[in-house]
Specification:
The protein is an alpha+beta fold and 526 residues long. The chain is 17% helix and 26% strand. It folds into two domains: 3-248, no CATH class; 257-523, Rossmann fold (3-Layer(aba) Sandwich), CATH 3.40.50. Residues 260-513 form the SGNH hydrolase-type esterase domain.
């Protein structure tokens, strides 16, 4: 927390009126202390604490044996639902920070005006940062009594009340256990907005066990706080959980943080370039590439029935990128693509890699300039080596993502017609002059054969990771019937000119739309 934030925090803290909840007790045959306990004041105000990340699954405090009995309690495990205040028959209940009771007719001597006052106060602030905001909460929780108890135990915690996290503990504060008239449990927690889907709505709770020498008669209602548990009336041991009710930590609803990596098929070659025109114009990044078309689509979060909208992608893909450019800076990009991935942030990463490592575009151009049908375009040794490198790349990327993140690996769509596929428009003198003049059917078969081999290598590399969070997206035949040589109104690939350009052999905007549709369909996005 910065200096200005701390000053603001202290100013707000002075204005906080401590929320009060009263567990009222009248103890038979016991005299009150000479001076009544003061209402919580300075000690009840939150103070700056060192913070701990808020996340469900915290280790709970060990069970405790209550003094003078064999009874055990397991802190923060009781059912914590709103509970109506309770009192023994014949007692009266009023509202306030300190309330006295008169006993019923059988307890005429029980008008001793003895009570304990639990309190919880908190301060929350949101800190905006580039990688996503986080929220800090500091709180003070405790109990003050106007008489000395034989024993008191207390522990605070924070419950996640966000959707799909109802009732899960995300933070545990300091425990206290002693005899006396007061005790406190304080803490501070940070909700990382990009690391945790919950923590938007939380409730601070204080669990108390109060042991006295006579009986407790009432859990009295009062404003600001609520009971989540009230048991032990009519006994010497009171077990109470009080809470603030759910409050907002100030964070916006969570989204799927998304990084789009890879080469020209992910950067957007073939579509108008409109990103990074100053810093990295040669990357040819476009807002019409497939990743941008996934924005606001909802990605399911496995097993919980929840889905979150996908954020605008962090587009790190760059034309000409090879596998090595995940870890090392590509001259056109000025930074390694690894910089676009965050272990804390990213739930989704998509990519296309491998084509440039095989020099596939150069091989296609050589087919246009010469003849390439006599032998396969790609050597088996090169394909085998690529598979191993891709498997290592996928594992490397996953190591930089969230553990529950999803890596979606796309194959390359075949953009030239497949002579063996009657659903494809074939070479035509009017509509497809460049292909007709420069490529034979035999060459087109070799090109489609190579595209198929690359797809199979990528699929095998994904399977070799053994990681179910790495998914293969097959786009090889996504453009069937819409490849080069299709009518202009049905064309999903950039037109091929006699002088090849960086857009040649790539999708056009309609093609990227289809790639996005394939990602949505094969990942089950909503």
């Amino acid at each position: 927390m910065g200096t200005s934030a701390r000053r603001s925090f202290r100013r707000r803290s002075r204005l906080v009126v401590a929320l009060a909840l009263v567990v009222c007790a009248v103890l038979l045959n016991m005299q009150p202390m000479p001076a009544a306990a003061a209402a919580p004041s300075e000690s009840a105000r939150p103070v700056k604490q060192s913070v701990e990340d808020f996340a469900v699954g915290k280790k709970l405090p060990a069970p405790r044996t209550l003094p003078g009995s064999d009874r055990k309690i397991a802190p923060l495990t009781s059912e914590m639902k709103p509970t109506e205040p309770k009192s023994l028959a014949g007692t009266s209940a009023t509202t306030g920070a300190g309330i006295s009771f008169s006993g019923d007719a059988t307890r005429a001597s029980a008008a001793n005006n003895l009570y304990c006052t639990p309190y919880i106060s908190h301060e929350t602030s949101v800190v905006p940062v580039r990688t996503g905001p986080y929220s800090d909460t500091s709180y003070m929780a405790g109990v003050q009594c106007n008489f000395v108890l034989d024993h008191m135990y207390g522990v605070s915690g924070a419950i996640d009340r966000s959707p799909y996290y109802q009732g899960e503990i995300g933070y545990i504060g300091r425990e206290f256990a002693h005899s006396g008239d007061s005790g406190s449990s304080f803490g501070g927690f940070r909700v990382q907005g990009d690391r945790f889907d919950g923590g938007r709505q939380v409730e601070i709770v204080l669990e108390l066990v109060l042991v006295a020498s006579a009986i407790w008669v009432a859990c009295d209602p009062l404003p600001g706080l609520r009971y989540l548990l009230c048991e032990g009336l009519g006994t010497k041991t009171m077990h109470v959980v009080v809470g603030t009710a759910a409050f907002s930590t100030g964070l916006a609803p969570p989204v799927i943080r998304y990084a789009a990596l890879g080469d020209s098929y992910s950067a957007g070659n073939g579509a108008p370039t409109d990103l990074d025109l100053t810093l990295a114009p040669d990357c040819r990044r476009s807002t019409q590439t497939y990743s941008y078309r996934l924005t606001s689509t909802r990605l399911p979060l496995g097993g919980r029935g929840e889905s979150l909208p996908i954020d605008v992608p962090f587009l790190g893909a760059c034309s000409g990128a090879r596998i090595e450019h995940f870890d090392t800076a590509q001259p056109e990009a000025r930074t390694a693509q690894r910089k676009f991935v965050s272990r804390g942030n990213d739930r989704l990463v998509t990519l296309t890699f491998g084509g440039n490592d095989l020099g596939f575009t150069d091989r296609l151009e050589s087919c246009f300039k010469g003849y390439c049908a006599d032998e396969p375009l790609l050597a088996q040794a090169d394909l085998t080596a690529l598979q191993g490198r891709l498997t290592a790349l996928y594992r490397n990327i996953r190591s930089h993502m969230r553990a529950d993140g999803l890596l979606a690996v796309l194959s390359y769509p075949a953009v030239l017609p497949n002579p063996n596929d009657p659903q494809d428009y074939q070479r035509d003198f009017v509509r497809c002059t460049a292909v007709n003049n420069f490529l034979s059917d035999r060459e087109l078969r070799r090109i489609y054969e190579a595209a198929t081999q690359i797809k199979e290598v990528i699929a095998a590399a994904v399977a070799a990771t053994g990681d179910p969070r790495v998914r293969f997206i097959d786009t090889l035949d996504a453009f069937r019937g819409h490849r080069v040589c299709a009518p202009d109104d049905q064309l999903w690939a950039a037109n091929i000119s006699y002088t090849t350009t960086s857009d040649t052999f790539h999708p056009n905007p309609a093609g990227y739309q289809e790639m996005a549709r394939q990602v949505r369909a094969q990942l089950g996005l909503g």
